[in-house]
Amino acid sequence: MSGCAGSPDVGTHSHSTPPPAGLATVSPSAALTAPATTELRDPAQVASRNGLLRTRIVVEQKKVDLVGRRLWALTYNGQYMPPTLRLKPGDRMEITFENKLDKQTNLHVHGMHVSPAANSDNVLLATEPGKTFRYSYRFPESLEPGTYWYHPHPHTQSAAQTAGGLSGIIVVDGLDKYLPPSLRGITEHVIALKDFQIVGDRIKTQDLKMGAPTTRTVNGQLNPRIRIRPGETQLWRIANIGANIFYKVALPGQKFYVVAQDGYPVNKVYSADSIVIPAGARYDVLVQGGPVGSRELRTLPYNSGKAGNQFPQATLATVESAGEPMTPEPMPTTFGPTDDLAKASVAARKTITYTENAAGTQFFINGKQFDHNRVDFRVKLNTVEEWTIRNDTDEVHSFHVHTNDFQVMSINGKPKTNYGFQDTVDIPPRGTMVIRSRFLDYPGRTVLHCHILNHEDLGMMSVLQIEK
C-alpha cells in the first residue's frame, strides 16, 4: 500500500494523549444497557450547495462522552458519530482529509458508484500519520438515491479503525420522487447501528473477537427514544456501520416496508417482520406508528454458523407512539425503475471461492490472501458478467464489491426476487450465491471482499481490474 501525497497541515483539534498500550488481549467489559431516557439525535449534516459538498475530516484519537462514560475512541472531527454527508446525484465532493493517528488510514465511500482511481474512491492509497490528503469525487447523474456510509479501508487496520469509531452516514437525496405525494417530506431518521467493546476507559480496537460482549448503539446513543404518532409514517435509514457483527432488526408487532436497499431504490416495495443486516448493509424503510404505547426496536438472536458466532438479543431503541393519531397512509407498492440483468448478454463467468483455515486466523479467496500488487480478477468496461460466489466454510460470510452494485440471481440454487441491486449480501455456510454485475463508467483498480472486516484484514479480499 503506497502513501498518498500530501503535506502536514494544521488541524482543528489538538492532539490527545493516547491510552496505555499493552491492553490488546484484555477481555472487554459486559455490554452496557440502559432505560430509554434520551431522545434520538440524528447526526449533524454537511450538505452540498450548488452542486458541491466541501468539508474537512480530521482523524484522531480523543476522549468522547459516550453512553454516560468518558471513553477513548477513534473519531472523525472529534466525534464518535460524525456528520452525515448529504448530496444529490451529479454533485461533486471535496474532502480535506487529515490523519492525526499514529497509523496510516484512508477513506472509502461505501457503495457509491464513483471512480476508484486517482484521488477519488481509491482504497489502495493511504494517508500516513501527520499527513493531509485531498479527496475529490465527481458523482454521476445516475447515482442512485438512498443511504451509504464512509469508513477507513487500510488493509490490516480496517476492522480496528472502524470498530474504534470511524464511520459515518452518507445520504443521496432523491427517494422522495418515488413516494406518493402524501408521503413526501415525512419525518426521516438515521438509525446508524454502531457497536463497541469496552476495556477500561477505551474502545477496544485490536484482537477483536466477534463473539465478545459488545455495546450496541443507535447514532452513538444507548437505547434512545424514537417518537412517532399513532398511524404516522416515517422513513428510517437503517445502516450497519460497524466492523463485524450482524443485526437482525425487528419492531415486534409491526412491519418494515423496504423502499431502498444498499442505496438502491427497490422496484417493488416489500414488507418484512425483521431484516438481517450484515456489516456494511443498509435498508431504507417506511415505518408506521402503532397504537399508543412503547415498543422496543430490537436485534433478535442470530447464529452465523457453527464456525461463527451466536449473537444475543438486544434492545436498540424504544419507539414511543403518542400524540394525536393520524390516518395511516397506504403503503406504496411500485417504486423505483426496474433494472434486470436476467436477460443480459453475459460476457464472462467467474467463480469466487471463500475459504479459511481451521483456526479462523487466515482467510482466502480462490486460495489466495490479499496482495495489493496482484490483480486477481479482470473485467471489461460496459459488459455484464455472472459470478458464482462459493462459501466453503462453516460460517456466514458477506460479499461486497466496490464501484458497481450487483443483482443477486440465486442463493443455494433458489432464484431470488429482483427488488433492485445491492452491494453487501450474505452467503450461507457451505452455500453458493450467483450474481450478475454491469461494469459502467469507471475503469481502474478496485476490490471485492468479505465485509466482516476481521476477515478482510486477515486476507479475504481481492483486487479487481476494470479495463477499458
Automatic annotation (TrEMBL):
GO molecular function: copper ion binding; oxidoreductase activity
Domain Plastocyanin-like: residue ranges: 62-173, 211-288, 352-466
Keywords linked to the UniProt accession: Metal-binding, Oxidoreductase, Plasmid
Pfam families hit by this protein: Cu-oxidase, Cu-oxidase_2, Cu-oxidase_3
Superkingdom as given in the UniProt entry: Bacteria
Stored Gene3D superfamilies: Cupredoxins - blue copper proteins
InterPro entries named among the record's database cross-references: Cu-oxidase-like_N, Cu-oxidase_2nd, Cu-oxidase_C, Cu-oxidase_fam, Cu_oxidase_Cu_BS, Cupredoxin
Region (Disordered): 1-26
Descriptive protein name: Multicopper oxidase family protein
Organism encoding this protein: Streptomyces cadmiisoli
Top-level taxonomy: Bacteria, Bacillati, Actinomycetota, Actinomycetes, Kitasatosporales
